[in-house]
Here is the input.
Amino acid sequence: MKPQRGVPPPEPVGIPFRFPHPEPPRGGKAGQVLPVFLPYAGCPERCIFCNQPAQTGQAPEPLASIYERLQERLASLSGLEANSSAPQRAASAQASPELAFYGGTFTALPAPWPQRFLELAQPHLSAGRLSRVRCSTRPDAVFVPQLAELRTLGLSLVELGVQSFDDGALAASRRGYTGAQARRGCEAVREAGLSLGVQLMPGMPGQTAAAFRADSAQTAALAPELARLYPCLVLEGTPLADVWRAGGYAPWPLAAAVDELAAALLTLWAAGVRVGRIGLAEQEGLTVLAGPRHPALGQMARARALLLRVRRALGERDREAASGAAAQAGLLLVPRRLQGEALGQKGALAADYAALGLRVRFWDEPDLAICAG
Here is the structure.
């Protein structure tokens, strides 16, 4: 709970029990992304929950048009570099954007479009105007020989829209592949020497909370570079909307989704996996009929995950107590940089910390700590 104004916070007593935030270090500042959207391009079929134009804010269009527009955007990078000074060019190289092909199924685009897009990016990669190239695709549309070729053309990271490794959930969502095929797709990306990203969809049709926990554990075991967690929403204009209207699908309530996301975060973070995004980005024209949607969903999940870690830390502290009895604890010291996260959305977790016997105070140290006070 927040300290009262004008009242100095209590001083910690004894040696604080310190522990780091569970999220792994990001390893540098996240760079800018230059997105290229390919709605439905290369997709063999439409998934029950999918409305890519609404999700990306861009309607399907010919690949040639997307190529020409990307060509112009990349040419503008060259123009900026040509008109800048040497110090400006050096600073620009350190902040070069990452080219990302989103939506659709990049590796299933008709030949030779994957190669053409990457060849367009090659000179900009060589000159340092782009930092790297990533794409998103389906786990049943990746094959080692093709991926190896795309790697030679500059592809660095492949994000697989796995959604789930559970056969029942995949069938109910009309994904068209099995959990075993999804795992083989992840292995193919690694075998081709590329970085791996995994996208999961908690609460998709046919999926239980236990199945999502298993998905999180399997993803952690794969140790991808990053993961994204997109709780299933009922979007207008999707087959799932018709199923939901007929009473055939019940999305996860917001509170349940936040609890499961928090547990997944701890599982992934413990394996060193960075979680890049939680929840769909807000887009104009995105009509959500039902499901765990909230503008601060990521913050809510991260705050709940931190609470779970604090509960675990209390047990660890008690076990380390020399007397074997529970050590007195009344104060949780939280790094000041986490001030907007620790207590949850609008202080929603203050009562949870109070139930643990903890008052929250912020300090300038990098770790969290529990102590008497």
Summary: The chain has a mean pLDDT of 89. The chain has two domains: 13-22+310-372, 33-293.
